[in-house]
Amino acid sequence: MSQSPPDTLGKYQIIREIARSNDIVYEGYDPVMNRRVAVKELAVPSGSTDQQKQDRIKRFMREAKAAGSLVHPNIVTVYDVAEQDGRFYLAMEYLDGQTLRKTLDSAGTLGADEAIEVAIEILKALAFAHGNGVVHRDVKPENIQILENGAIKLTDFGIARLTFEPNITMDGQVFGTPSYMSPEQINGRDIDARSDIFSLGIVLYEMLAGKKPFTGDSVVSITYAIMNAEPEYLSNVNHTVWSVLIKALDKSPQLRHSSADALINDLKQALKSLTSQVLDPIQPQMPMAQPQANPYQANSQYTPYGTPNPLYNPLLPTGNPPPVVAPAQQYNYQAQPLGGAPNQAIYTPYGQAPGQVQQAYPPQQYPSAYSQGAAYPPAQIPVYYPPPPRRQIISPEALTNLGRLLMAFVIIGALCGLLIFGIRLLSDAGTELTNRVPAQRVTKPTDTNPPASQPENRTTPNNSSPPPVNDSSSATTENTVPQGDPSQLIFEAESLVDEGTAASTARIRNEKWRQANEKFRDAIQLDKGQENQIKTKAYNRYVTASNQLASLGANAGAREALYQALGYANTNAEQANVEARLRQLGS
User: How confident is the model over 510-556, as pLDDT tens digits?
Assistant: First the structure.
């Protein structure tokens, strides 16, 4: 099969090539539905056997069937699949933005909250696909598209497994990207939705760490790491996120999340933990001490069994609780002022002298301790682990360089504006000179003896309409350029094209070019004999406008000017020139 870039595939017009890997993807245009599309053409390597070609065609058609049956906001939409002259292709929605791979290459890592949100969107697509009997088998950053509006799309179902149909590959045959394959996929065993969950776990790890969890310098070392090694612990994520991630990366399918919906629920809980103040589940909490009975009650004349209390202090306030009958085994109590504060109790372990180990507890805060002689430890303060700071997407150096680049664009734009303004001034001066010279010229009448009342010269002020003439003078005197003169209309049309080229917005430019096209059309109607010459002038003017806009970096305006020039192309060579320029601007 020839793989040269075609001009059309079926009803789709090919504009440019977007990507090339196992297949070729073009940017195309659907004239019937008036929309941009992505056209994916099957690419068969040269030297492939007939059996290999048939297998590639079957897998290509299976991709169209798998993705075409899935209509979901997070899955690329397939419009059509067909074959033309031995070239198999499918048309799908055109996705702007960039892949997750390009985002990670430029940013390095994503914040934990942003990475979890991306993973949840992809899991929604996988949950819908699994529910319809489709296992993707190739979840990786290259197949995840982040659109300009922030939407997430899962693409490339080229090696998807349809659980409701027999497998194309033989037992033990492996398909997928080695760094993102599950252990059961490496072994060539039957796989299900949990294989995609493992691949998604690798993608989530890479978004958080900026590197893959299982690495190596060859396919053998990578697959060995997937089968045997454990991923390196990430210190920049909290324990809740890490526990969800490590469960998704479990090497046993039975120990992973049972479905994409289960993983979505865990990730949502982990997302909440990033902003909530919770205790670290790893650190054990110290239990509160149980109150112990003290046989020696402060300010009491009585001890158990009627023995006088040697620590009785009559100076302390009365109203003590009644004595508690309990063996004296743990605590010795001594009541004394502390730091000038009255009635503040000091507890020491029984058998030690006061002052060796002392801990003060105000009785108003610990009434049970004061009454029963129990020593409570201080209240435990919950340990709060704030979420890690988000990684700065653009470094200060990049911001500085970006500012310089924007300043350079502003200066270049100002210079171009001054240049266009100067050209306009010269053009207006030439127009004034052109209008002024013919106004002083008088043609000779057909009669050699003109009436005595006829003036020799008639001038018309610049930028004003010609004065009315009577029947006697109209036959002998040539006025300035009239309103219906083709040359004047052509001049006005070319000026409008230049004004549209220098316009500040696309709306003004399109309006100026619409007026210019009306002028060109009126000139053609007034002078049918000069139709080709008028079209050539219009063609050249729009091609020049396209070059000026392209030099300023306004590729959208440059393409629009080429589309206008295409309408005035007289020859196949001019048409081919416009199409070639369109492809250059598109690339």
Answer: 998 899 999 889 888 888 888 888 889 899 998 999 888 888 888 88
Distance, in Å, from the CA atom of 188 to the CA atom of 191, rounded to the nearest integer, reads: 8
pLDDT, one tens digit per residue, over 280-338 is 454 444 444 444 544 444 444 444 555 555 555 555 444 444 444 444 444 444 444 44
What residue type is assigned to position 292 of the chain?
Answer: Q
Q: Among residues of the chain, what percentage have pLDDT more than 90? A: 34
How far apart are alpha carbons 7 and 180 in whole angstroms? Answer: 36
What domains appear along the chain, each with residue ranges and CATH number? Answer: 8-93 (3.30.200.20), 98-273 (1.10.510.10), 482-587 (1.25.40)
Q: Cβ atoms within 10 A of the Cβ of 253, count?
A: 19
Does the pTM surpass 0.70? The reply is: no
pLDDT of residue 576 exceeding 60, the answer is: yes
- Token representation of residue 25: 């993807």
Measured between alpha carbons, how far is 21 from 466 in angstroms, rounded to an integer? 68
Round to whole Å and give the CA distance between 355 and 347.
9
User: How confident is the model over 173-181, as a mean pLDDT?
Assistant: 74
Q: How many CB atoms neighbour CB 376 within 10 A?
A: 16
Alpha-helix residue ranges (DSSP H) falling in 249-325 = 260-273
What's the CA gap between 475 and 481, in Å, rounded?
16
Answer whether 432's CB lies under 8 Å from 462's CB.
yes
Q: Where are the beta strands (DSSP E) in 293-343?
A: 331-335
